[in-house]
Amino acid sequence: EYESYLKRNRLDMGQWLRYAFFEIEQHDIRRARSVFERALLVDTSYIPLWIRYIDSELKLKYINHARNLLDRAVSTLPRVDKLWYKYLFVEESLENWDIVRSLYNKWTSLEPGTNAWNSYIEFEIRQSQWDNVRNIYARYVNVFPETTDIWFKWVEFETIYGSIATTRQVYSLAVDSLISHENTLNYIFNFQENLIELVVAFANWEASKQEVERAKAIFNVALKKWPQNTTLTNALLNLDRRY
Q1: Alpha carbons 110 and 94: distance in angstroms, whole number
Q2: Measured between alpha carbons, how far is 151 from 153 in angstroms, rounded to an integer?
Q3: Res. 186 pLDDT band, cuts 50 70 90
Q4: 3-class SS at 242?
Q5: Which of 47, 96, 124, 154 has the maximum number of C-beta atoms within 10 A of its C-beta?
């Protein structure tokens, strides 16, 4: 009955799934795999099909089959985050840290969205691999040079896990990088305001470390570039009041 129905309507993916699960219920994994593979030939972009197929292999504890499927899935549909997360979850639950790291490297080499990078950073923080986190951030800011939030996250990381020297280095790198990209990124809404916000944060951080002269020097350089900016002027006045 399944075969005759699918001859009439081979694009009904729900029916393919029902057929595969029927075979699993009969404890015939070989036939179930055959059905799943035939369904993939019909529509390789149907995400639930990949997920159900992988879950079936995992449920029956065929880990290597599941791993091969996951590898095929992310190679076939590299822009589908759900498949990468599935693969990473499986390997991390098995504590295959090197495989997890290689998967993240492969995924981020495709320059995906920010969620992938943030997940990779969180993984390395859980592993207490601080240098790896720094290397990820260095790549991350190159892919999204216009996003000041990423620089702020890097600064936050350094204030917790780094030192005064590494935090200062990231702040300096952030300001220099954003200014160097200013001409090409000026079209982005609020880019200049975000850049100035970063400069003010840098100066205030220096002041909080009792480096008041450094803070004033940062403000003076910034005011030469943006002499009419009230945010910078007010921030410098606040600094003078405090110190």
Answers
A1: 25
A2: 5
A3: low
A4: helix
A5: 154
Q: How far apart are CA 210 and CA 231, in angstroms?
A: 22
How far apart (Å, rounded) are the C-alpha atoms in residues 118 and 152? 13
Distance CA 72, CA 80 (A): 12
Asked if 13 and 35 count as a contact pair (C-beta separation under 8 A), the reply is no
Contact between 188 and 146 under an 8 Å Cβ cutoff? The reply is yes
Residues whose CB is less than 8 angstroms from the CB of residue 6 and which lie 6 or more positions away in sequence, other chains included: 12, 15, 16, 19
Place of tokens 């029956």: 60
Q: How far apart are CA 237 and CA 230, in angstroms?
A: 10
Encode pLDDT of 192-232 as tens digits: 888 899 999 999 999 999 999 999 999 999 999 888 889 99
Distance from CA of residue 61 to its chain's centroid? 29
DSSP 61: T
Tokens matching residue 147: 């996003």
In this prediction the pTM is 0.88
Q: H helices of 77-163, where?
A: 81-93, 97-108, 114-126, 130-143, 148-161
CB 171 within 8 A of CB 155: yes
User: What are the φ and ψ backbone dihedral angles of 129, each rounded to 5 degrees?
Assistant: -100, 80
The DSSP string of 148-174 is HHHHHHHHHHHHHHS-HHHHHHHHHHH
